[in-house]
Automatic annotation (TrEMBL):
It comes from the Eukaryota. It comes from Cephalotus follicularis. This is RVT_3 domain-containing protein.
Length: 105
């Protein structure tokens, strides 16, 4: 939804007048029917569904988040060892702090 909001923000300056109106669900029967259809397992007999195919996506930008995967031990290594394998650090004070911190999340 954030992509659509930013796309809208970019387009709204192209209009002289912009009015946003909330349409109550009771007045938007087609959208309500489509939302129900999306969750229905099968259509009833003689039921017609109009579908509009887009030539291209409305939002053309691809959002990719870069993730740096650490190759050596870091601050999270002991947490991961504890959560995945149940292995605590050898130092009793460090192990106690780790369990205390991990239980808070």
């Amino acid at each position: 939804m954030i992509k659509y909001l930013s796309h809208f923000q970019g387009m709204k300056s192209a209009f002289k007048v912009l009015m946003i109106v909330k349409v109550p669900r009771a007045e938007n029967v087609r959208a309500d029917q489509l939302s129900k259809l999306a969750t229905a397992e099968e259509l009833e007999k003689n039921q017609t569904v109009l579908v509009d195919y887009l030539d291209r996506p409305t939002i053309s930008e691809v959002d990719v988040m870069d993730i740096d995967v650490p190759h050596g031990p870091n601050l999270m290594t002991s947490f991961i060892n504890w959560l995945r394998n149940g292995i605590l650090p050898e130092d009793p004070m460090e192990a106690r702090n780790l369990v205390y911190t991990a239980n808070r999340f």
